[in-house]
Every structure is written in C-alpha cells, then in structure tokens.
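Can you make up a polypeptide sequence alongside its tokenized fold?
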Amino acid sequence: MADKPDEIISLTGDKNQTSIQDDLLVGIIKGRLGSAEDARFFDEERWLKAYRNYRGVYGNDMSFTDTEKSRVFVKITKTKVLAAYGQITDVLFSSGKFPIGVDPTQVPDGVSEYAHIDKTKEGENAPEEETNPYGFSGDGKELPKGATYDDILGGLSEKYNGEAEFTEGPAPDLKKMPQIEPAQESADNMKKLILDQLEENNATKELRHTLFEMALLGTGILKGPFTFEKDLHRWTQDPETGSSAYTPSKKVVPMVEAVSCWDLYPDPEATKVEDCNYIIQRHKLNSTQLRDLVNRPFFREEEIISTLEEGPNYQVKGYEHRLQDRENETEFEKERFEVLEYWGKMDKKLAEEAGLDIDLLDDDLDEVQVNCWVSGQRVLRLVLNPFTPARLPYLVVPYELNPYQFFGVGVPENMEDSQQIMNGHARMAIDNLALAGNLVFDVDETMLVPGQDLKVYPGKIFRRQSGMPGQSIHGLKFPNTAQENLQMFDKFRQLADESTGIPSYSHGQTGVQSTTRTAAGMSMLMGAAALNIKTVIKNVDDYLLKPLAQSLFQWNMQFNSDIPAIVGDLEVSAKGTQSLMMKEVRSQRLMTLLQVGANPTIAPFIKYHAVLREIAKTLDLDPDQLINDPEKAAIYSEIIGVATNGNQQAQGNGQQPPMGAGGEIPAGANPNDPTGVGGGNIGTGSIPQTGEPSFSSQTPPPQRTN
C-alpha cells in the first residue's frame, strides 16, 4: 500500500505556541459558518415545508376558520416522493451493482490496445527486448518507434513476466496466436477494484440515503472518498494448541458517507461545489464518538480530552425544534457536542503559525487548502488537503437543477400548491358530509315547556305547551356538495402529476385513461413516464456517479499505485441512463439482436458475450456469477465438445446415426441441425391431392359412389 494521504501534513508546535492562532482559526471558521447559515435561511424554509408536506403535518403558519372542523391532510406528496425515489433506485440498482464503468480511452496512452504472442518465433533466438516497428499513438502523445515490452503491456508487464514476448497489435491469426487487450484488462481490473471498495464499505446504503433526500429536499449530498482505517476482525488458530485467537488488523480504505442537507453549509457566493471557497459540515457527536476521533490520524488528543471535560456544547438550531415537533425549550442538547469540519482555503501564514507544517509546498500562493476540525474554541485537527489535486470531498446532486442557487428543487416543492388545494377541498368535502349526513334542528322554544334539555337522542320526549304537533321542532337537511369538492380534488391531483412528472399510474393508481386497458397502451404510457425521470437520472450520472467514480479512480492511482494491474490510460463513466429503458423492452430487443446474429454473414460482427451480459442484467441477474468470460467460455466449449463427440460415437455404436452411411448429411436434412432428429427440410413438394400417393405411400380409400 502506498503512503497514506496524511503522512505529508503532520502538525508541529504545542498548545501554548499556537493558542492565539487557534482562536483566530476558530473565529474565522465560525464567522464563515454564520455567513453560510444566513444565506441558507430561505432554503431551510423550503425544506421545512417539503418535510411537513411529506409527513402530512400542518405548520404553525396554517390558520383555520372557526367553521372548519376537519384537519385532514391527504399525503399525496409522500406518495410522489416515494414513487420518485423508487423509480430512481430501481433504475440505478437493477443489476445489484453501482452503475459505473471504467474503459480505456479511444487511443490509450502508454499501453497497446492489442498485443499477441507470435508463436512463429518460438525456439528462435529473439532479442531480449521485443520491439514495435511502428509505435502507437495516444492522447496527444506518440510513442517512438521501437516501443519496449513494458510500453506494450503497461501495468500488466509484471503479470505476464516470464511468458513469451508479446508483440504490439492484433494477432493475424486468432486460432494460432494468443491475443490480449492490455488497455481493456487494466480497465476491467480498475472497475472490479472500485466496485469491491464500494461494496465492502456498504456504499449502496449511503447512496440510497442521498437519493431519498434528493427527491425530498431537492438536493442529495455524498461525502468522499476519504481515507479511513477500517478494522478487520480476524481469528487465527494456533497449530499446536488448536485454540483460536482474536487478531484484529487495520486496512486503509476509501470511504463514502451520506451527508444531510441540514448539516452542510457551503460558500454563500457559490452555485456549485467547484466554485466554493469553503464548505463546512456540522457534526452532532456524543461523547463516545468524540473520543473515537483520537484513533484517527492527526487529531489532537489533548484538545479532544479538554473538550470532553468542558462538557456538551451542542446548540440546537431553530429548524431542529420544528423537525422534531417540539417546543423551543432547551437551548443546548444534553450529552452532545458540536464539531465543525472545515474544508477550504485558509491564509497560509495563519495556518503555519497555528501548527501546520507546509514546508513541503513549493508554491507562492498566499492561501492553502486545509481541513480543520473545531469544537467550541478548540482546534481538534488541522491538516493540508490530502487530495491531489486538491478538491472538496463533497458530491452534490440536484433533483431538479436550479442554475442560480446551490441547492436544487425537489418533488414536494414542485407540487406544493396542488397539495394545499387538495387538502382544502378534502377538508371541505368532509365538513360538508358531516353536515349533510346529520339533521340540523329548528326549535321554536315558545311552544315548549320552559327549562327542557334540548339535546336529541333516541327516545327523547319534548313537552309541548302550545301549537300543533310537529311545529315546535323541525329537522333540516343540508345538501351534499362533497362530489364537487372531490372533482376539484381529482383535477389538482392531475395537476400534481403534471408538475412532478410522476403520473399516478406509474405508482399503482387505478382508474386512469382507457389507454392503459391494453398492454401496448400501458407500455406507451410507461415509456412517456420514463422520459420525465430521465433528466433526474442524468443529474445523478453527471453530479454524483461519474464524479464518485473519478474520485475513486484518483484515490487508487494516488494511494494504490503499487498495484500495476490497475494502472493505465483509463476513463470512467456513469451508466445510470442506460437502464432507463424498460427491462421487458430491453430484453426483447436484445433477443431480436441474437436472432439477427443467426445470420452467418452478420454473426462475426456481434459481441455475443456483451449481449449475454446485458440480457442477464435485464433479468435482474448478476452476469459476473452466471456468464463466463471469453477465455473460460473457450475452455467449457472444448469440454462440451468432447462430451458431444463422445455421445455421437455412442450413437454410432448401436444408436441411430445422425448422418448418412458415408458421414455426409442426409439429403433434405437441415445442415444447422447436426443431430438429424428435428428441424430438417423435407422438401418443397406440393401437398398430395386426392388420388395421389400420400407421404405413407398408401393409396387413399376409393370414393363411395351412389
């Protein structure tokens, strides 16, 4: 393993020397936090409304008239959010893996696209270094003539060390000359490593949390990859005693984690991460979590202990009270600590005086990129930004892009007005049903004996002192207008479908247009619905998956460069949009392609291995577990071929032979059916007519005559 990212950024100095600078650092970071918090105020109000609509809770700003009795809240927003989240996750994780890819560039630099072993040179005294008489090109750089063996194989030269020398270029005869694709093999190795790192660290769970908040609040945030020492729990067995001993170890791995929008405070002047001078993440830690920071690289143990001794310092924000549906009673959270994680620019001189060793930096800039952790008035960690090139380790993906703001727009905000109107008509309908379903009494008290209880119940007796029977008490019935309210409710539900791009039939709502009565009609509607979610998936590709894959690629190239098999001129890609097509439609098209490939003229041009892998994905199966690569397929093909030849020989020893006596294909048989037991062409003759011999060579019975 290469050096850890923090090994070049150690701290110097003691607390007494740096106390003043620490205070300045804390003051600068908290001042920038205040600016970011003020700029984020209106975003917080949007998020609170979205969250309340999702939960079906009225805010304090909602006022009801005295005549309104119902407080019903129809949770259409929740249905839409879960539908959007379900569609996105279904598209991205249909194959069970992260939809990212790693491929060589169009013209790989420093490695050949193809290489082969020239078996015609075996046994000859070949030179120590195989040369390439032509050279090969790559990304604006051309290798000279006479490229070496290492130039041809790149990072794979160590893997094939000791084998016959490879020659650059495709093999003239694939049957006689083994061929490899060094650039593609390096890309496959890098992809497997990245997917293994993501799976090992449960990145799917973190990504799902990010996608849910993206649909709910309009923005999803993923942090990473950052270096983390993961504990490996292992047990070893003593060969003499046979007893097991717990022998834990640590492994440096790239980690990713979901970050809530509520905890991120970006530069108020920026509209995207790349434009941010700084980003601050707010942590809410208990005493155990704060104490565990001591085990992470370059955290100041004495400062952490002092913070613990000073006691909890987490101040509850106003929005937290509203999220938790509680009154603003307590200003401080019991047994919780506020820790601010700062990423961004800092004055170079101030950072150096605060204890940061920057002697290794050879630039003349007045500012440096740092990572600083602060709690209370204490600096818990101060290091240089470990990434090369320096970057902020946050990936921010919008559900709907707002080009003029940092945070995006989510599903609840798009249908906020529709939700309010639907709630209003639902409340009116219920209030009206309460009136229309019960009698309202008109009482003439002058006709009744004074002092009587006017409550009405079965068996009630009223004493009348005057008037005619039935004139003192009249039952009035109000008209039922709930149907008109429900019609308006349906109208605005349709408006919610249009404003969100998530039609009701896509999440199981029945009673939609008659087009859905047929399978073709439903397929058309589902295809149209997929177009609405396509933009969201494209945002996930551009703002999350591709930058994540690029960051992991850079992390491995920086800290795993001692693994030569992954080194190469590679590029990463996101493949979320490739899964937008309905699985059934995609599977059908792939099968059609296989049928087209049955044509011997077209078959050589089809990559059957890739087609089979895509078919497995449409069936929600793991292609890596079920489909062999071409090399293994060739081995199994030989095994199956041997078995097949053995069966044919057995058939020749007593069973029906598949071929003619001379080994030729029987006349009229299908050449594509070597078994000779089915699918044969029996000729093109006409159907036997009356009076003609049939296929059984029997004459039809004579016709009965009168």
